[in-house]
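Note to self: keep these together.
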Amino acid sequence: MGKKKFVLFFCLFVLLSGCATRPTDPEELKIYEEINDPLEPMNRGIHAFNQVADKAILKPVAKGYRAAVPAFYRGWVNNFFDNLSQPVHLLNALLQGQFKDAGATLGRFVTNTTFGFFGLFDVASEMGIRNPGNDFGQTLAKWGWDGDGGPFLMLPILGPSSIRDGIGTGVDAVAHPLGWALWNEQELHYGLVGLDGVSTRERAMDLLDDLEKTSTDYYATLRTMSRQNRRKKINEVLNKQEPDEKPDYEADFSDIEWED
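Structure:
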């Protein structure tokens, strides 16, 4: 067996061994289809790995970052990286035909880049310019891949996603201007990506701690919360109405505030 065939066979074996058994009981089958997590054994394994990596490295670094950097300056860091991502959001808004979102995104980028000292200050929000944050996962939904975007998928380090949104995350990462601007400065590029990751983890720290403490099944809680938040974002570009029932988890990572 050649090396390429062996690798392909091994990857297929891992995927198949990570699939949950499809139930035959009608009631259990209904729940199984609603959850839409046929890769649950594999996903739980990745979740366990993420937990180990988070407790050993990511969370301690984020706690140190919070302790060393005042909230005001942490806000600058988040604003800077958010502004850098606006060209990607603009491209997706145009691909989705969301021209109002495209106008708001362009307005934010120009305003914060010029009057906000290259995005350090979020002047646009103070002026009432909204931040749509269109992504390629939404673009794929707009192009026809709607619903949950395929089975639930737990990504290493990055966390909850789906097949569609995992692809979207990869495309948005490739399209990000930081990678193109620092093509020949890879060490600086990865350093900035790392800082962005630490900033994001610091902002999510209290929310994730509360979820972990109050959840009987932390994995299932993350799955439910992330799926509900993604449905909301997908419905925004599909112009669908939100369901009347109250969601189980209303927290959204975009609403996290900085803690002193």
